Amino acid sequence: MITSIEQVTDELLRNGLLDDESLGESCHALEKRGDEITGQNLLALLTSEGKLTPFQADEVRSGRANQLQLGNYVVLSKLGEGGMGTVYKALHRRMQRVVAIKVIKKEVATREFITRFRREIQLSARLNHPNVVTAYDADQCPMGDFLVMEYVEGTDLNEVMKRNGPLSVDDAVSAIRQAALALGYAHQRGIVHRDIKPGNIWLSGDGTVKIGDFGLAVAVDVSRLTQAGMMVGTVSYMPPEQAMGGNVTARADLYSLGAMLYEMVTGRPP
Is there a catalytic annotation at residue 35? Predict the structure, then answer.
């Protein structure tokens, strides 16, 4: 735990979270208020001034400020975490664009998983549609491989149903129609998602639906749209042929879309 003013200022400056001028202004403000000049007090003030997010302050306090730098991006907050990786909200320093970054943990990622993740990056780069989460960039950092994506101001449909229960018929039809348009676009480019479910469908504040997470997607021949392989996906929304490891076609995504629609209007998967 970092507590001294010297340690905190060193972490902030060394990792490019603040410059000398901005840091000096905040230290002067502490003195003017008559507060003790400590690392904890400085972090509290920087958070209240909006110069640091609460997440950033916690990372500095814990000695992990170096993990807030991902290439040209500075991490603002954590959006979610799984066994294989973490998704952060971040800011591109020069463009000042807020993005979402998926980072794969180096210590737990197998070669096969990294191969699949890099394939996701390549597939995502081929998609440009208003109902698909846009991929902006990809790179590597000391923490591992990462994919930079459009940040959607909203939540996934799984969380929406957890909070509010089933959707109205109008809202469900609107969401499914937008998802279907995105899938049609992907299928025309030979990409089958293979893991359509409420947790991978994002709903923004203006009602726009966006499909994300092409991590299980497979690029197939457009004329045949078939690909044999092992069982992958989410069981509640998975068509029988996919569960049995058979050929997966674009129809698999439509099956999953129908299962999702059923849950959206009834409150439970089929």
Answer: no
Q: Which residue has the higher pLDDT, 18 or 81?
A: 18
CB atoms under 10 Å from CB of 7, counted, come to 15
| H helices present in 34-110, as ranges | 39-48, 54-61
Length of the chain: 270
Which one is catalytic: 145, 156, 195, 253?
A: 195
Strands 135-141 and 209-211: unpaired
Average confidence (pLDDT) over 50-75:
93
Q: Are 218 and 192 in contact (CB under 8 A)?
A: yes
- What's the pLDDT at 228? 44
Q: Using DSSP, state whether 190 is helix, strand or coil.
A: coil
Mean of per-residue pLDDT scores for the chain: 85
- Enumerate residues 6+ apart whose C-beta is below 8 A from 176: 257, 260, 261, 264
Q: What does the alpha-carbon distance between residue 99 and residue 177 come to, in Å, rounded to a whole number?
A: 26
Contacts 24+ apart (CB under 8 A), 41-48: 42/5, 42/8, 42/9, 43/8, 46/12, 46/18
Nearest-CA neighbor of 170 among 207, 200, 211?
Answer: 207
Model pLDDT, residue 100:
93
